[in-house]
Specification:
8 helices, elongated, six-stranded antiparallel β-sheet, 337 residues, five-stranded antiparallel β-sheet, alpha+beta, 11 strands
């Protein structure tokens, strides 16, 4: 349009001020239209790419259901990279024939660069969690998957084509916490360098264990004799809060660390207690503490045993059970005179 106006319109050949003004207006209109068109095309393409990336990331770290077997569940994570839906933190909860199995992990580094390692570890857990009868077998499968992933990354980045690298990837590791919870609430745990969860029992907030964890995966090989020790019992009404170290390491503008136990004690005062309530309280306080943007990836996973408390034994308990049977239309058992 601009070229046609310049070559064919007699007004564009004149040298007066009015002619030059009209010519400038024509070129400005054409240029503005071109810029707006390019901007519209780029925005449409950006929305398409963002939708594809969001769908891929949601499949990798899929949203957890509100219930897994007999546990109420809530989880959320926040990437340190702007625009990224996920980062270097990972979690999953699955119901298997061996009990409810949980993984919580943190890949060294954060943001988009850690997504490949997250995919390797999570993919291995989603298979091994169902297949392996022992929790130690699940952890060994994760270790092999991580080592294979690091070798492939190192091979792809090796300078000579086809040369096998001596060291897969230096200083790459993943902290992993594996939990297995039986139907009666009995827990077994294997911890490789990850923070221990907190147990909320009424107003109390206590670490699940004080045992020294194993080294993170990728630093040293797992020991030959590996078994999952008991980690206590998740009783009815208790809540288990798993998290990555980006939560406790978050600092405010004065350099103070985030007081996670105090925040959990605050959330435990809310009644009725639910995983979503705990999650909302933690993330609200965390974002306020860090000024809306933590420096590292953060993830929190909350499990709540919402089974009813066992009825009390004794005459009062028997009377309550009789009342329940009568309400349901059952006849009370005859008593001897």
């Amino acid at each position: 349009m601009a070229a046609t106006y310049r070559l064919a319109c007699p007004l564009s050949q004149q040298s007066g001020f009015g002619a030059r003004l009209v010519t400038s207006a024509v070129f400005l209109a054409v240029g503005t239209g071109l810029v707006l068109h390019v901007r519209r095309v780029l925005l449409r393409e950006l929305r398409r790419v963002h939708a594809v990336a969001g769908a891929a990331q949601s499949v990798l770290l899929r949203p957890l259901p509100p219930r897994v077997d007999w546990l109420s569940v809530a989880a959320a994570q926040l990437s340190a990279d702007r625009g990224a839906a996920i980062g270097g933190d990972l979690y999953e909860v699955i119901a298997t024939e061996h009990g409810v199995r949980v993984v919580m992990g943190d890949v060294r580094g954060h943001g988009l660069a850690a997504i490949g390692t997250v995919a390797a570890v999570l993919g291995s857990f989603r298979e091994a969690g169902y297949d392996e009868a022992e929790l130690a077998g699940v952890l060994r499968r994760l270790e092999r998957a991580l080592a294979r992933h690091l070798r492939e990354r190192a091979r792809a980045g090796a300078a000579p084509a086809g040369v096998e690298p001596e060291h897969p990837v230096a200083e790459e590791f993943v902290t992993v916490l594996l939990l297995e919870i039986d139907a009666d609430g009995e827990m077994r745990a294997l911890n490789c360098g990850h923070p221990w969860p907190y147990v909320l029992s009424g107003p109390g907030v206590d670490p699940l264990s004080g045992a020294e964890p194993l080294p993170p995966l990728g630093v040293f090989p797992l020991p030959a004799d590996l078994s999952a020790p008991s980690a206590g019992r998740l009783r009815p009404g208790q809540t288990l809060v798993l998290y990555t170290d980006g939560v406790e390491d978050a600092r405010d503008h004065r350099g103070r660390f985030f007081p996670l136990p105090a925040v959990l004690a605050e959330s435990a005062r809310d009644r009725p207690l639910s995983p979503r309530t705990v999650l909302r309280t933690v993330f609200t306080r965390l974002l306020h503490h860090t000024g809306e943007r933590p420096a590292d990836d953060v993830a929190v996973l909350v499990l709540h045993n919402d089974r009813p408390l066992p009825t009390r034994a004794g005459p009062s308990g028997a009377r309550e059970a009789t009342e329940v049977r009568l309400c349901r239309g059952a006849r009370p058992a005859p008593t001897n005179p």
